Amino acid sequence: MRLSDEKISAALASDLSKWSLDGDFIRRQLVFADFKEAWGFMNEVALSAESLNHHPTWANVYNRVDIRLSTHDANGLTQLDLELAHLIEACLTRRNHTG
Predict the structure, then answer these.
(1) Which helix (H) or strand (E) holds 27?
(2) Which of 59, 65, 57, 64 is CA-nearest to residue 24?
(3) Are 43 and 89 a contacting pair, CB within 8 Å?
(4) Cα separation of 42 and 91, whole Å?
(5) Left, alpha or beta for 34 (phi > 0: left; psi -120 to 50: alpha)?
(6) pLDDT by residue for the chain (99 residues), tens digit each?
(7) Global pTM?
(8) Residue 6, Cβ density class (10 Å: 0-12 exposed, 13-18 middle, ≥19 buried)
């Protein structure tokens, strides 16, 4: 079920404050020290995403990773997107990534 605008705004204003709304997506752009760090992060996120059976739309160029989350079947954001965003934030915390 698609999330209400209020639920999305509340999530972005609190524990997902480093994410932004981008149309029907929430988005986070990250910069790592190098390609190896970026790729390691993406690998860890891929395993979490697979466990949820929910996958990000993302791009990687050298040390940069651009992540966009949306539920295509719902044509917008659902609880799965927030869950995956939280898993991504946990991964960043484990890696001591501050950006």
Answers:
(1) strand 25-31
(2) 57
(3) no
(4) 10
(5) beta
(6) 999 999 999 999 999 999 999 999 999 999 999 999 999 999 999 998 999 999 999 999 999 999 999 999 999 999 999 999 999 999 999 999 876
(7) 0.94
(8) exposed
